[in-house]
Amino acid sequence: MEKLIPLIAVVVIAILAYRIHRKAVAARRERLIESYVFPQTVTTKLLERYPHLTEQDAMLVIAALRDYFHICNSAGKRMVSMPSQAVDVVWHEFILFTRKYERFCNQAVGRFLHHTPAEAMKAPTLAQEGIKRAWKYACLRDNIKPDNAHKLPLIFAIDTQLNIPDGFRYSLNCTGRDDYCSGHIGCSSGCGGDSGSSDSSSSDSGCGGGCGGD
Hints:
Blueprint: H1 4-35, H2 40-49, H3 55-75, E1 80-82, H4 85-95, H5 98-108, H6 129-141, H7 154-161, E2 170-171, E3 180-181, E4 193-195
Parallel strand pairs: 2-3
Antiparallel strand pairs: 1-4
């Protein structure tokens, strides 16, 4: 028994050290995502694509892009869908700066985020694992209950808010014909295109209950 006590102490110390390290890494990534200065052409491309937007609108899209990277960081290696067409535009433009993008991904998320163009689900009732995950973490970032949302998180609301012509529009009340109803995601949300890891072995459960796994 006396020999076990030092071993147990070592294990406990190792676990505490690992948790402290994880928190430090998470905090460092959070700060990087919030402070990172994206290339100017990222917003230039957005304004060329949607000339009705103002510089202030563009900054809001950049804020939503930061949210997306925060969401991917929270999701670990699991795929996260892109809920916004406007944010997808600036994300794609950022990727063209290959070396900067790769370095940013490694430092801010711990992995390279592969890009698949944002696209609507084939049917509003076809819940995708990645969009469920995006909804969950986006809600948590905006202090919204994922399974009982009183409003849409920024990255789900921004296309409608900025009147993006080809944007994705989401609805909480499921009454709009062209909207993606929040109830169709299986956890009070809608649709989108994807990015991230192609490994879906740790994917969330199917439509109907909850808002994805941790």
